[in-house]
Design brief:
The complex is a heterodimer of chains A (308) and B (95).
Chain A lengths: L12 H14 L4 E8 L5 E7 L7 E7 L7 H16 L4 H9 E6 L4 H9 L52 H12 L4 E9 L3 E4 L11 H19 L4 E4 H4 L7 H7 L4 E7 L14 H22 L2
Parallel strand pairs in A: 3-4, 3-5, 5-8, 6-7
Antiparallel strand pairs in A: 1-2, 2-4, 6-8
Helix pairs in contact in A: 2-9, 3-9, 6-9
Chain B lengths: L10 E5 L4 H13 L3 E4 L12 E5 L1 H13 L4 E5 L2 H7 L7
Antiparallel strand pairs in B: 1-3, 1-4, 2-3
Classes of the chains: A alpha/beta (308), B alpha+beta (95).
Chain lengths: 308, 95
């Protein structure tokens, strides 16, 4: 319990779970831990609320690790919380943000899959449910949200990597996240989902070629966020609408969040572009997280100043 | 233990289909060989001029390579031995 957390290494789920308890205990005025449900394999899903405790505040929800093998993603969520706690009261921007905004940070969304990727199959992607009544395990949680569910860019074959499940929110993990967001919609003004790899910043929609009503605004925010990110190491990011920049898919979390009314909804695809793919070395965690922080901070400032 | 599954000599290929024929080839290949798509997420999403990265197990990689060569599909081997890359993620440090 007293061990120092290492943010420049990949951490197992047990380590991350213990860290969520420890950091909430260490910074009680800034961090609290909320259990939002359980996974298929009955692991508790922990969310960290980060921000100075005060009255009603706007909130940004950020999740990491929806796909098990994208290890840099949970590493970023941990880094974000570290930066928030260590720089609050020292860094002007972070202090301003945390005084006026809360973040809900879900460090690992697909916990069972993440554990599986550490113990059995490094390249596992889906969750570990067997809801399909076949021998094939797992649903792609990022095809399981109720956003034109099951219509485009998904598979109804449980053996496929992009299997969308038996119904929208059929998976306990999706249900837990969606329920929490629905219950807190009054305050959640921004949604961020962190993936890897490809170096992209995406925004709705993925399930249709229709533009989001505030498309031009999202495009501008994404452009500026990418510019901020690139300013640190020159890392090149593409940005734009998911359906065109990446490919059309339905049931993704960022589309769903947007349609629920969260008008600033973005998906990050972190480093790299294929040199390492899902196997990004630990030595790249720090630079990847540092540059990503700049983009996330930019979006957070924008949401704080512009969301109604 | 990082991975109980062995990825020894498993490879990751990158292909950039230049036309519809090559797109169809990749989709057909995915239907007969076990390809784990890294980007895009599935064969379903493959379109022309898209960089397509997929992982193939050691026992199938020779056959996949031969199929691509026979069909004049240009490819690059991004990762030659996945197991080594899995171990290298930790940059030599024990985790």
């Amino acid at each position: 319990f007293t061990a120092r957390h290492c943010y420049t290494k990949y951490n197992s789920w047990d380590t991350i779970a213990a860290w969520t308890a420890r950091i909430a205990k260490k910074y009680p005025k800034l961090v609290s831990r909320i259990e939002i449900g359980n996974t298929f394999e009955q692991r508790p899903m922990y969310l960290l609320q980060v921000g100075k405790v005060s009255g009603r505040k706007k909130t940004i929800f950020m999740d990491c690790g929806i796909h098990a093998r994208e290890w840099i993603s949970p590493a970023f969520c941990q880094w974000f919380v570290k930066q928030a706690t260590r720089t609050y009261g020292k860094d002007k921007t972070m202090t301003y943000l945390l005084d006026n905004l809360n973040f809900y940070v879900l460090p690992v969304f697909n916990i069972d899959g993440y554990v599986w990727s550490w113990t059995k199959d490094r390249l596992w992607r889906k969750n570990r449910s067997n809801n399909s009544n076949t021998d094939c395990i797992g649903t792609d949680l990022n095809r399981n949200f109720n956003a034109a569910w099951g219509t485009v860019g998904v598979s109804d074959d449980p053996c496929d990597e992009i299997y969308c499940g038996t119904a929208a929110e059929s998976e306990k993990e999706t249900k837990a996240v969606a329920t929490f967001i629905r219950e807190n919609l009054h305050s959640i003004k921004g949604y961020l989902t962190i993936h890897s790899y490809s170096q992209m910043l995406l925004f709705p929609y993925g399930y249709t070629s229709r533009k989001a009503p505030n498309h031009d605004e999202l495009n501008k925010v994404a452009e500026e966020a990418v510019e901020a990110l690139s300013s640190m190491y020159g890392t090149k990011y593409k940005y734009g609408v998911s359906a065109t920049i990446i490919y059309p898919t339905s049931g993704s979390s960022d589309d769903w969040a947007y349609d629920e009314g969260i008008k600033y909804s973005f998906g990050f695809e972190l480093r790299d572009r294929g040199k390492y793919g899902f196997l990004l070395p630990q030595s790249k965690i720090k630079p990847t997280c540092k540059e990503t922080m700049l983009a996330v901070m930019h979006i957070a400032k924008y949401v704080l100043n512009h969301a109604s | 233990l990082v991975s109980a599954s062995s990825f020894d000599r498993a490879k990751v290929f990158r292909v950039k289909p230049q036309n519809e024929r090559q797109v169809k080839f990749i989709k057909d290949l995915a239907s007969i060989k076990q390809l784990d798509f890294w980007h895009p997420d599935s064969a379903l999403h493959v379109v022309t001029h898209m960089e397509v990265d997929f992982h193939v197990s050691a026992d199938q990689s020779r056959a996949v390579q031969t199929f691509m060569e026979q069909n004049r599909i240009q490819y690059e081997v991004l990762l030659h031995n996945l197991q080594e890359e899995i171990e290298k993620q930790f940059d030599g440090k024990k985790n």
